[in-house]
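pls read this protein:
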Amino acid sequence: TNNINHEIKTPVHVIQACLETLENNGEALPLDTQKQLLSTAYDNVKRLSALLADLSVITRISDAPEKIESSEVNVTDIIHKVADEMKVFPPEKQLRIHIDVPENVKIRGNESLVESIFRNLMVNSFNYSGGRDVTVKLKDTTPDYYVFTFSDNGVGVAPEHLPRLFERFYRIDAGRSRTMGGTGLGLAIVKNAVSFHQGDITVRNREGGGLEFEFSLAK
């Protein structure tokens, strides 16, 4: 609760400070300064909006999973959809996304939550991995589960951080996370969404560099 309060109060205080400065001294400030204050306030409005949206997802999974609708979900289609969404970034910054998943891998689940798994993993790699290549692979299939891996070719993380990566608001570099627009909830959403689909998720450093997430989704 304290973490949530802190994360919400921080952008609210910034927005309030910017608007108070404009209200009290706006006419005396140079136009560039006024624009900068408005831009800072707007950035923090977007950050607060993203934070509230992520909190809503986690709360929905944790508090009322029985109210979340389930249907047939084509996981392959979702992976390609999310990969296409990542193409909005400039070509020189885009991830090279390699998909090794057969067509029509389907589960019984919630489409929005399955999307959130792959979207948050890709956004996390884009923002923090330091690499350009990610690979999504169907590693194994059992009578009850599909097992996926998601890996990048970045720098990985120090071993002491690995057990805490799925904690809410845990940031290895808090300043960079906020600069990149992160809410600190992306990987927590991934873990909760995997759990909703009766699966497990682990993360490790790859020998060749980067992180590898392995997770299962019930059929």
